[in-house]
Amino acid sequence: MEMPDKPQELSAYLDRHFTCACGREHYASLKRVSIREGALKDLPKFSKELGFHNLYLVSDPITYEIAGKACMDLLSGAGIQAKIQVLQHTGFDEATIGELLFNMPLDCDLLVAVGTGAINDMTRFFSFRTGRPFFTVATAAPMDGFASSIGVLNINHLKTTVDAQTPTAIIGDTDILKGAPYRMIAAGLGDLLGKFTCLCDWKVAKIITGEHYCDRIVELVESCVQNVLKDADKAVDRDPQVLGDIMNGLVLTGVAMSLYGNSRPASGCEHHMSHYWEMMFEQKGEKPVPHGTQVSVGTVLMLKLIEALRRGKIDFDAARDFARSYQEADWESEIHSAYGPAADGIIAMEKTAQKNEVNAHLNRIDEMEQHWDEILSLLEALPSSAEIMNLLRSLQSPCLPQKIGVDKDLLKKTFLYSKEVRARYTLLQMVWDLGLLDTLSDEVIKECAED
Length: 451
Ligand SMILES: [Zn+2]
Ligand SMILES: [Zn+2]
What we know:
This protein is an alpha/beta fold. It has two domains: 10-179, Rossmann fold, CATH 3.40.50.1970; 183-214 and 265-450, Dehydroquinate synthase-like - alpha domain (Dehydroquinate synthase-like, alpha domain). Helix content is 55%, strand content 11%. The chain binds zinc ion (2 copies).
């Protein structure tokens, strides 16, 4: 089947093989999604349609009350055999795995995660390791990891990324989602707002480095984020329609990652900032704010940086001088001071990625100079930082770095070095390529301090 040239409903992209004008094939294995008022009723329906007869539900005491009990009633009403485990061991570690295994009906054919975050990660992993598929019944939508195929668990007291699987169905009942705390709603919206900068990353990368690009996937994600943004101010009133749209957007961006085969459609410079903060907080033994909240702050910072870039004039010859002045040994010692114990991995990655290598850098400057008008029109199409900040403020969500524990020193390092966490070309790398990252980030840091 041909990948649709106009964005369609999410359901049109599930479990279908597409050929695409971009030259690649796209496939997402997720089979069913229901996000609506009363969507819980689709749990027995989807189970029957997909041939599951014996379900093992996973909840904690809170999600049991929010949705687990209602799921069990619906399943028993539909004559489907089901057991629910209300977790007593909620460390999401070896003890939780043991509890799940000990209580699992031997003949169950489907796991169901009732919850978000850790419950999902655990069920994603547990179902994978016991060779069964799983569904997600979401109780909140704070990030776009629903369709992810990895999980994060506490193994040997360490946060560990484990291989897992993507869900077969995702259910988001807006009657339940509207009860989620504001900080979770704002985090979900924040993760979605990050798509503006992340898609812009991809568009400039296509021009500057010739990276492979799929405009059908970009348009799909873009149209859904625009759709959410137009009514996002109603999120503060817990408008079920808007909360459903946010969750739909988060599931859809997850599907877009599956379709493309990596996280390019959903993670860019704003996520690199968040990854860097996660690493730094972990090194200090501190707990960072939720992922989506970090992403929303990263998005605001990037929009401010691009606004600062657009205020000035670009001197491509000065950029060339900057490129030629690069000293690998100096860069390495800066990375040691910015990344601490994580520096070796970053330095090893650069050895293969060669993002900072002088000739490639000079070539990118040539491309930018040739296509600057085109790049500028992409930057002009971004929403303003003020618009995004107002939206986040209406949800009482932090939108400035100092509100999430990022001080001036860490902020400067974030601007200069967070681009090094991945080999992916982003707006941060572009501003660095132009030799302007140091001066423009100072402008933004000053602005943030005054806001
Ligand atoms: Zn994210
Ligand atoms: Zn494509």
